# Entry
Amino acid sequence: MKKFGLYSVVLAALLVGGCTQKTVQVDTSSDVSTSGYSQGDVDSKLNAMDNVVLDFVEGLSDGGDWRNDRVFSTMIDGKLVQVTSLYFPFDKFHLTSDMVTRAKANSSAIMAVGRDVKITIEGNTDEWGTDEYNYALGLKRANTTKEALITDGVNASTISMVSFGEGNPVCTDKTQECWKMNRRADYKVLP
Amino acid sequence: MLKIIIGLLLCLQLLFSTDVAMEIVKNTGYKPSITVSLASDVTMQSPFANDLKKLLEKDLEVSGHFDVKNIQINSNFNSTPNYYTLKQQGVDLLAVITTEQSVFEGFILKLKLYDSNMNSLAVDKSFNSVKDERYPFLAHKVAIEINKYVNAPSIDWMERFVIFSRYTSPKESQIVIADYTLTFQKTIVQRGLNIFPKWADEKQENFYYTTYNFGLPTLMKVNIFTAKSEKITQSDGMLVCSDVSRDGKKLLVTMAPNSQPDIYEYNTLSKQFSRITTFGGIDVNGHYLEDEKSIVFVSDRLGNPNIFSKTIGQRGANRLVYHGKNNNSANAYKNFVIYTSREDNNEFGKNNFNIYLVSTQSNYIKKLTTSGMNQFPKFSRDGESLIFIKSENNKSYLGIIRLNHDKSFLFPLDKGNIQAIDW
# Structure
């Protein structure tokens, strides 16, 4: 669970030079006028950027065949917990009747090992829509899923949520079937 | 009622319009004609010489201040051109460029600008680049220099950096800094999900972005000179820095500390948040209007995403847009707002997104694009231009619209999948 990525470069920079500004190489153009804009400004930034690569040690990824509903399995206290992702209509964050049934089945699977199980719900969207709105839509889908769990007796304080917007597709084909599988909320039941 | 009528008129106009930005050419006075020529007497040109020439021509076009004539002129770098022939060809200015590979890395670009009306060499300068791949910035520098010679309004904005995030795989995205055409690209942040980059100051020395690499969505601030990054805050669910005040001291942030996406203002000095929107649905994408006491934002409070404005600290919100079924992204400059509008409200339609320009002070509205999927519109700092990403027929482009010149330009993008962009 400790997914605390480290800025390896930053750490190295702190160890070596603290927060001091790096010496940057500035171009020396022969006779370029500097009035109106700063000749060295762009180049010094470009030089500085050559030394900036914030590279995270640990990434996150999921696998699986996107054509199937995503099932997440976890062993908790020797018991197998299986939950299946919920899928949503286009641009909406309410549960259709079949998804209400599935949400209840998921709640039952979780309650079988106890109401205090730690769960992270990840909200996702298809690629349609733009940046911030998609992340908010993903969050509302996660929240709908969370509310269903709470209604069924799961401890609200053990559920966390995160939205990946359109950034965690299970499929990147340009088909309606594919987009449908991306409009979903995933349960991550934590041991 | 008036707005409904305007909406209907707009719909009629849209039915019959082509690309408005392309078709209207405002008469802004005489534009000097210019031809760019790669010196023919220099045989050892940099491998980037041809790309540089093309980009310089595009820069001059994008400036809106020149009539770029793409004619073949054999120019020797060390001899004066025939001014009479140039005049016969309708060429006011001839820019002869040549490149020399540096002994170490990079190259030198030499420019001779001839004015056929003055029968004289107008500019004779050279520019260095310590890295080959930085040639786009040399093209922009030369364009700025030529623009200065004709005393046209400044195009210094061409040297500003664009910052964007690009998805590379599920839950993975990079943050990249580029020139305004995205020809030069330098990856700054990689691995893990890193999204919503936003310049933190006018000087473009710091930027904000959101990373998911610390468990919760985390807002980071990075200084490009020191490579120092600091955590600003974390939030459950989502966290985005949508806008930065002109003095850089206040941020508009979308976050969801109680599972509810709302817009907050963050004071970077006191490190305090104050909540601006309280609607129970989706409120995102806040941008300061001119007085920085009111904002424009996207909300689904009327059932579908649409564009609203609100005075900070007061109740209620004003609907700004009365057309479109799904208007889900906005950006503001002073009291002008650009937004994307999805022309269909389901996934079975054509998935056309177009960009519109409206004023918060009047009923002014203008459609800026007419085909394809046009997203991520962002004003330039001076409000005279905007950039956007266009996808059409499985190809992606960076688009520039020069509002004062009613012209738009497209630069092909080889790597699409852009998540967010700031200029």
User: Anything to note?
Assistant: The first strand of chain B starts at residue 33 and ends at 38. Chain B has two domains: 2-23+159-422, 33-149.
